[in-house]
Amino acid sequence: MIEIRHLSKSFDDKEVLHDINATFENGLTNLIIGQSGSGKTVLMKNIVGLLEPTAGEILYDGRDFVAMSKREKVRLRREMGMIFQSAALFDSLSVLENVMFPLDMFSNMNLRERKKRAEECLDRVNLVGTGNKFPGELSGGMQKRVAIARAIALNPKYLFCDEPNSGLDPKTSLVIDELLHSITQEFHTTTIINTHDMNSVMGIGENIVFIYKGTAAWNGTKDEIMTSTNQKLNDFIFASDLFKKVKEEELAHHDNKKQ
User: Fold this and answer.
1) Of 61, 144, 181, 202, whose CB count within 10 A is highest?
2) How far is it, in rounded angstroms, from Cα 140 to Cα 165?
3) pLDDT at res. 247
């Protein structure tokens, strides 16, 4: 579990995040959503240590990341897996070598063990037999799956995903969502996904934090979104006619059940 307590972040005299409080649970797909410029990317960068908060605490299972020494932070980062907006694979390395990279850097396994672990991870994301290929030979969706395989190679307790569906078609996005959800449940990771993909929100949003102008404006599940009275959230989620219609139907169904 990751807890954010009274977190604020300023750049010079501009406050980008203000008094954020949020809890991200183990074994759930936790989503951070919000408009571009709302502060959700800055929040994730603070959580993983790419930025230092101006104030507040970030607790990893009770351990305050902000107060840790540099050495302690390095140790904690070994418990993290990260999937970037672009797959961020090394073009000059094979698929297998890409997945082995964190094992080469941080594990005590011998070469045979590292290869076996990498192959297991590729198998887990349904990419058996692709180890000798290079990233440029794969589709965008397959590259994202390689990135997921690499992120889980060290059996992370915490998994961070920055816009994992960026640039993917809806069908491939669904595959990635389902894969992240199943891995989260299987390994009981604390998974945090930064997204503005409403299909992801409604599909796998088990715990959702809505960021609005640097504040945590709403928190709940995908089901609670459908009956939310938070106008800022509704304006963001139901901007499209499709999702607006879905909400109207859900509210009508909810009213009928009350009667």
Assistant:
1) 144
2) 10
3) 52
Residue that is written with structure tokens 């609670």 in the block: 224
Q: Rounded to 5 degrees, what angle do the CA atoms 64, 220, 63 make? A: 10
Specify the pLDDT at position 85: 75
pLDDT at 246: 53
The Cα 122–Cα 68 span in angstroms is: 34
Residue at 20: amino acid letter:
I
How much is the CA Rg of the chain, to the nearest whole Å?
Answer: 19
- Distance of alpha carbon 218 from alpha carbon 208, whole angstroms: 8
Phi-psi region of 134 (alpha: psi -120 to 50; beta: other; left: phi over 0): beta
Token code pair at residue 137: 């030979």
Q: What is the pLDDT of residue 243?
A: 52
Query: What does the alpha-carbon distance between residue 178 and residue 102 come to, in Å, rounded to a whole number?
Result: 24
Strand arrangement of the beta sheet that strand 207-212 belongs to: 80-83, 158-162, 190-194, 29-33, 207-212, 215-220
pLDDT at 252: 58
Q: Encoding tokens for residue 100? A: 């082995």
Residue 251: the pLDDT is: 54
